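Example record used in the benchmark description.
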Amino acid sequence: MDGPDRFDTELNILRALLLQAIALAQRDTSIGEIEALLQQLSDYVWSNQEHRIVYECLRIAWRVRTMPLRQEMASKATRLGHPDVDWDSYFKQPDESFVVADLISHLKSNSL
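Model output (structure tokens):
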């Protein structure tokens, strides 16, 4: 997978994960779905530094969940030394509807 396709796929995964995480948090349901998806990405080497930061902040914030996800993630990013993440680009609706697990599988199989 080349640079632009990989960048877009990573961004779409993060957007879809965040939307799913917000929906699950609002319903206060099991964290298992998001945890499983995050775990699938635990060994992935992100092509974009900001994408890696967003992923790491989501992993941390999802476990803590003491405030709304976006606020929690921004707080974590600042503590990690990355206060300038463009959160609006991540917390927007993806251009298409995606099955996150399929995107992750596609990304990992094409980035070896």
